[in-house]
């Protein structure tokens, strides 16, 4: 069972072929298992190759700042391939979150100093938001202009206090920071202004800043390294030069592009899980014939094929029109959940062992929905934004997701 090809430009096809060849050679399941055990949580040598030879973290960085200057669609294609390999890397937190936020809010000095280093892979970054509220902060599961996710008043979340000389001190904790344990630069969302001038701002915190404590967490999906970040009067630099910047708007815009990248990654992982399952049922025999020849198995595989192709189409569209990225992410998270669950079953007895490769994909599916979903909340917010539950002539009302 092959995979249909979406129409790609020559440049896009080259990105896909080159990246797939490199990951096939250097990021198989055994290499992935070794990489996640390293202190960084990824293969540093492979990351340098992806950065130096392919310019992966700089694909969507403008040429003005040393990047390749491609569109989001090219970076999404790369993410589809990294998803197929379940590549553990700082690509998504660095290029998918930090780079667009620095480009949108940073001063000219900050952009000139940080974006070229991101483009070359010499600087890894992570976005730290209070608690475990990344989908809310990025506007994927609700209106992020509401301050609940960031903490409010004079306590809760992460608090920022201005000090002399234009510097800031941060105090608080972020519970689940993607790549946060090894990132060399943290973008920290913090609340300031108390009740009178309540607002959320973004700050730059060096990885070696005094008062910064980072603990790598044990996660269901080890290919997505996560950390608890604690700040105790930690020195920080305001991202941008205006403490009245529209930070929720910038986060929502970055969240839309991030969701498109996540959707592409999930679609790639689902496609790889299906390909592995098809190969297995062609080889495994029962009653003297391959189990893939049984009509019941063929029907199940056909349903999975439709799931994967629908997910790929949604992800490909979202990379071009990010307005539907949240809905595409929901579609792709559901697809990988269904495909990986079926893959475990169709592998039979060996499929239920944690050591089997099928469980790497199964854990990715479960972990991603815990981190970026759940699916029903992504869909509920997308429906609310589209006004699907708004009667003609009446203002939109908030949609409360069940569960």
CATH class placement of the largest domain: Mainly Alpha
Instruction: Supply Rg.
Output: 21 Å
- Kindly state the number of beta strands: 9
Strand content: 5-15%
Number of domains: 3
Low-confidence stretches: 1-5, 398-403
* N-C termini distance: 37 Å
CATH fold name of the largest domain: Butyryl-CoA Dehydrogenase, subunit A, domain 3
Q: What's the overall average pLDDT, rounded? A: 90
Give the class from helix and strand content and strand pairing. Answer: alpha+beta
From the spread of the alpha carbons, the general shape counts as globular
In this structure, how is the largest beta sheet organized? 7 strands, mixed
Number of helices: 12
Full CATH superfamily name of the largest domain:
Butyryl-CoA Dehydrogenase, subunit A, domain 3
Order of helices and strands: HHHHHHEHEEEEEEHEEHHHH
């Amino acid at each position: 069972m092959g995979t249909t090809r979406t129409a790609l430009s020559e440049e896009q096809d080259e990105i896909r072929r080159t990246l797939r060849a490199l990951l096939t050679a250097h990021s198989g399941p055994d290499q992935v298992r070794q990489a996640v055990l390293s202190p960084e949580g990824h293969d540093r040598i492979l990351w340098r190759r992806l950065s130096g030879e392919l310019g992966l973290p700089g694909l969507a960085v403008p040429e003005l700042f040393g990047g390749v200057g491609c569109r989001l669609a090219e970076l999404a294609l790369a993410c589809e391939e990294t998803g197929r390999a379940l590549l553990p890397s700082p690509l998504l937190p660095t290029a998918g979150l930090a780079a667009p936020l620095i480009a949108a809010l940073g001063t000219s000095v900050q952009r000139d100093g940080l974006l070229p280093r991101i483009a070359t892979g010499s600087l890894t970054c992570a976005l730290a938001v209070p608690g475990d509220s990344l989908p809310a902060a990025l506007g994927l599961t609700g209106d992020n202009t509401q301050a609940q996710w960031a903490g409010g008043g004079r306590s809760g979340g992460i608090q920022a206090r201005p000090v002399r000389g234009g510097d800031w001190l941060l105090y608080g904790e972020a519970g689940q920071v993607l790549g946060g344990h090894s990132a060399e630069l943290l973008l920290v969302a913090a609340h300031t202004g108390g009740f009178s001038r309540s607002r959320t701002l973004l700050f730059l915190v060096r990885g070696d800043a005094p008062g910064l404590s980072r603990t790598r967490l044990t996660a269901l999906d080890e290919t997505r390294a996560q950390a608890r970040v604690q700040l105790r009067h930690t020195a920080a630099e305001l991202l941008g030069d205006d403490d009245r910047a529209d930070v929720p708007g910038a986060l929502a815009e970055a969240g839309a592009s991030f969701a498109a990248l996540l959707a592409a990654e999930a679609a790639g992982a689902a496609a790889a899980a299906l390909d592995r399952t098809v190969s297995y049922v062609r080889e495994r025999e029962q009653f003297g014939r391959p189990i893939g020849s049984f009509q019941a198995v063929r029907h199940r595989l056909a349903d999975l094929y439709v799931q994967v192709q629908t997910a790929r189409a949604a992800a490909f569209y979202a990379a071009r029109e990010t307005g539907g990225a949240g809905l595409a992410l929901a579609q792709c998270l559901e697809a990988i959940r269904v495909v990986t669950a079926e893959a475990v079953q169709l592998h039979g007895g060996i499929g239920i062992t944690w050591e089997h490769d099928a469980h790497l994909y199964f854990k990715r599916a479960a972990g991603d929905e815990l981190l970026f979903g759940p699916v029903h909340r992504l869909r509920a917010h997308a429906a609310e934004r589209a006004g699907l539950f708004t009667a003609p002539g009446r203002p939109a009302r908030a949609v409360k997701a069940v569960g």
